[in-house]
């Protein structure tokens, strides 16, 4: 429990003294102190897991760490993607089908009909896909649809609400950036639509006997092309080394993923030289990667953007340099550094199935098929177009989808599309429930807030200085955090979007997908608990979380349930009991009600309905005399995203509670989720911490 008691006592004392001072001014605390006050044990358990000798032991220790993360009540899982009604012209499972990485954003294989696919035809397609996965035939959705009179379309139109801020796929960790660019560049390997890992720019590879050295043989003859399709250079092993070096220099949220994985990466980031990094081109077509140890999930990591190549010659000729400080200095010179600017599609070159030819951040993004792509015969689309749409007029979007402008539309009660589909018969003929996924959305409590209004003055908190202090003091109390999160009714929040019938369908109650991995052999913990081979990771998390709750005196029927598809957290009586404990512990160090700022995008009818539902249930459960939700209105999507999703640091988060963030796994190991809340973890900013 390193630092825990001293830190908490110091915080309470400081804030108590401030609370009695009528002229007190809120001051943000030290991030390190806050981190260890709320996640000290989590950090220790994560270190123990990483030191485990076997995969099974590691999974078990990760499960203990995740149980502690959930019990810390700094975050609450809400939903996963999917699990909602939709009508669509897109055949199922025609993009790479995988739980992690960037491959599921690759659209080159989409099969799109000229008409909506009926429920019956969709079931037949899924049956064919399932048989293909088992090796009982080939999945050819185009042939199946054409046999039923469908005509296959080769142009795909969809929408975007957040434009890419960069075309440099190694200088970003935001999906809103990479979901565009990943369609323009290939990596070493790639999953297909049957969830099979296939060669891509690496034709083949060998792994050393001890599992620490990977030798990739790069496909010869693959070229880089300008946005207009002009050949620029051949893709070589040097381009993968250049990409990895640049990714480390850019430090945009990808670099932490390879620390402790690729040999020398941590040392380089700490001030060493790149010569120490285990990433080298033995020749033009041989890439050698040396790892810190035997990492059995390493191949699954290669489908994430941090391992993509860049054209070294192009990068250097557009102001690029190597070296962490050198890069920061060069990037600041906007006149000389022109690589990957989102204002100019010609600032990047591409080696993938598509070329980016247009990017207007407030209107349209256009990709066209790369006719010289080495697998051009596998690319089903001629164009992909994203049209800006902030979701304000879903009736129009529904009408446009009916006309064929777009291929699919989700059906929501809050925005009226469900009623439209019921009224015109589309629901009965075509509606299906979309697949749930491994992405986890969650709400984060800002335990170290640093921003109370955007730089432009918008989305300003109405709090007084004393209220800021009171909120911070309350959120540093674990029992208060638990009271708040047990009062957050996931099902009510979700029903606004999915409808009452499906409100439980895509609920997620733990951070990692509960069936993400399972153990191969029996494994026993230090207290003698044995988990049999085949036990899913989520079942281990459930055991350890229930054990924590039992020690706190929680009745078994009131335990958090971590399985998908249930309202596993909301419990009004439990919330009220924890509030009573919190009030006793906080004493007169705070003045009630505690005010909690939640930002929402008011032109979006779903978000507006959700914030009202959240306010009603939390104030109704805890009492408005104890907790008040301040609805902080963002009238533009830019302000909404700046307040939360696009806030680059914990200090920049303009909220007390934010449920607009999520995490999709980057590779096939629980650490892909859990590391985001470790020291320097990417998602710490959602709880207001930069440490």
Average residue-wise pLDDT: 94
Radius of gyration: 25 Å
- In helices, the fraction of residues equals 25-40%
**Overall morphology:** globular
Give an account of the 3D structure.
It contains 22 helices and 24 strands. The chain has 691 residues and is an alpha+beta fold. The longest helix is centred in the first third of the chain and has 20 residues, at 31-50. Helix 1 packs antiparallel against helix 15. Strands 5-16-15-14 form a four-stranded mixed β-sheet, with no helix packed on it. Strands 8-9-13-12 form a four-stranded antiparallel β-sheet, covered by helices on one side. A three-stranded antiparallel β-sheet has the order 1-19-24. The protein folds into three domains: 4-81 and 438-687, no CATH class; 85-146 and 391-433, no CATH class; 175-360, Dipeptide-binding Protein, Domain 1 (Dipeptide-binding Protein, domain 1).
């Amino acid at each position: 429990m390193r630092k825990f008691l001293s830190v908490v006592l110091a915080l309470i004392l400081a804030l108590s003294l401030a609370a009695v001072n009528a002229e007190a001014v809120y001051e943000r605390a030290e991030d390190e102190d806050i981190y260890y006050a709320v996640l000290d044990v989590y950090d220790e358990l994560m270190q123990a897991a990483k030191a485990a000798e076997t995969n099974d032991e590691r999974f078990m220790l990760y499960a203990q760490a995740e149980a502690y993360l959930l019990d810390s009540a700094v975050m609450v899982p809400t939903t996963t993607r999917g699990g909602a009604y939709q009508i669509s012209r897109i055949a199922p499972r025609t993009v790479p089908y995988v739980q992690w990485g960037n491959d599921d954003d690759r659209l080159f294989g989409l099969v799109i009909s000229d008409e909506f696919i009926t429920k019956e035809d969709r079931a037949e397609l899924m049956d064919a896909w399932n048989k293909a996965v088992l090796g009982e035939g080939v999945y050819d959705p185009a042939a199946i649809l054409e046999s039923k009179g469908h005509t296959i379309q080769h142009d795909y139109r969809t929408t975007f609400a957040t434009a890419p801020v960069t075309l440099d796929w190694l200088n970003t960790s935001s999906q809103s950036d990479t979901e565009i660019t990943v369609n323009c560049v290939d990596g070493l390997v790639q999953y297909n639509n049957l969830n099979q890992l296939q060669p891509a720019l690496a034709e083949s590879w060998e792994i050393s006997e001890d599992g620490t050295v990977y030798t990739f043989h790069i496909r010869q003859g693959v070229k880089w092309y300008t946005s207009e399709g002009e050949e620029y250079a051949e893709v070589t092993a040097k381009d993968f080394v250049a990409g990895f070096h640049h990714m480390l220099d850019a430090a945009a949220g990808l670099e932490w993923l390879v620390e402790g994985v690729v040999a020398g990466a941590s040392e380089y980031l700490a001030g060493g030289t790149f010569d120490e990094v285990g990433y080298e081109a033995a020749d033009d077509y041989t890439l050698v990667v040396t790892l810190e140890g035997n990492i059995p999930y390493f191949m699954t990591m290669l489908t994430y953007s941090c391992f993509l190549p860049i054209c070294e010659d192009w990068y250097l000729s557009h102001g690029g340099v190597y070296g962490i400080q050198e890069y920061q200095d060069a990037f600041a010179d906007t006149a000389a550094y022109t690589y990957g600017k989102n204002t100019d599609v010609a600032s990047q070159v591409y080696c993938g199935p598509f070329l980016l030819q247009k990017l207007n951040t407030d209107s349209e993004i256009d990709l066209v098929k790369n006719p010289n792509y080495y697998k051009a015969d596998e690319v089903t689309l001629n164009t992909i177009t994203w049209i800006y749409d902030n979701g304000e007029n879903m009736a129009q979007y529904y009408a446009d989808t009916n006309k064929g402008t777009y291929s699919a539309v989700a059906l929501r009660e809050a925005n009226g599309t469900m009623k439209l589909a019921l009224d015109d018969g589309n629901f009965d003929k075509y509606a299906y429930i979309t697949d749930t996924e491994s992405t986890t959305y969650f709400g984060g409590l800002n335990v170290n807030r640093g921003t109370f209004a955007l730089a432009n003055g918008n989305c300003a908190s109405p709090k007084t200085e004393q209220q800021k202090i009171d909120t911070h003091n309350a959120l540093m109390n674990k029992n208060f955090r638990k009271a708040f999160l047990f009062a957050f009714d996931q099902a009510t929040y979700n029903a606004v979007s999915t409808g009452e019938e499906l409100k439980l369908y895509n609920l997620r109650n733990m951070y990692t997908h509960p069936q993400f991995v399972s153990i191969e052999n029996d494994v026993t913990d230090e207290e003698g608990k044995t988990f049999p081979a085949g036990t899913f990771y989520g079942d281990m998390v459930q055991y350890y979380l229930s054990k924590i709750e039992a020690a706190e005196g929680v009745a078994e029927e009131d335990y958090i349930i971590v399985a998908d598809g249930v309202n596993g957290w909301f419990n009004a009586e439990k919330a009220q009991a924890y509030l009573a404990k919190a009030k006793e512990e906080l004493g007169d160090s705070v003045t009630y009600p505690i005010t909690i700022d939640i930002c929402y995008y008011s032109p979006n009818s779903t978000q507006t309905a959700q914030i009202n539902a959240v306010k009603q249930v939390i104030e109704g459960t805890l009492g408005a005399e104890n907790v008040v939700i301040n609805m902080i209105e963002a009238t533009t999507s830019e302000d909404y995203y700046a307040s939360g999703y696009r806030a680059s640091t914990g200090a920049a988060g303009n909220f007390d509670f934010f449920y607009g963030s999520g995490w999709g796994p980057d590779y096939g190991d629980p650490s892909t989720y859990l590391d985001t809340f470790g020291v320097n973890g990417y998602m710490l900013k959602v709880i207001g911490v930069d440490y």
